[in-house]
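[agent] plan:
  1. take the single chain provided in the ticket
  2. run structure prediction with default settings
  3. attach structure tokens to the ticket
  4. add a short note for the reviewer (M.T.)
[agent] executing step 1
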Amino acid sequence: MISTRRLVRESVMQALYAYELSPLPFPELVQQYLNDFRTSERDSEFAKSLLRRTLDHKEEFDAIVVSKVQHWELKRIALIDKILLRIGLCELLYFDDIPPKVTINEMIEVGKKFSTEESGKFINGVLDAILSDLKSNKLLHKQGRGLVEATQKQTTTEVK
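[agent] step 2 finished; step 3 output follows
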């Protein structure tokens, strides 16, 4: 069974794909692509926030991706893969309650479903490299059950 969060991520990816092809105002994106989640306030808020933050930080995310894909221009990356990398970065950087492994696994699975056969491996490699950099530069700030302990272990290990 597919989780509701996976369905939200897929809908956000579809909205961002449509936005790339023909920019629509934010309210129209929400209306056309996220309307299914209006029955759950939690899912609706997550969907809107993920969409808005991904759009707001698009250039920032693209610069991070470019720094990790040697010998690749951003325009050569499949559009869906690029969008999933942006969504993954958004979750890593701006959603403190989502474990990094969950984010990466979700982006891999959505990539396998909607993009190319090799997308899962590509997305995994790029997001894993970014996650490693975020950890080593102490830029990963996760909170919540199972997340605080992981951050503390990382900090304790680094101090030793």
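[agent] step 4 note for reviewer: Residues 148-160 have pLDDT under 50 and may be disordered.
[agent] ticket updated
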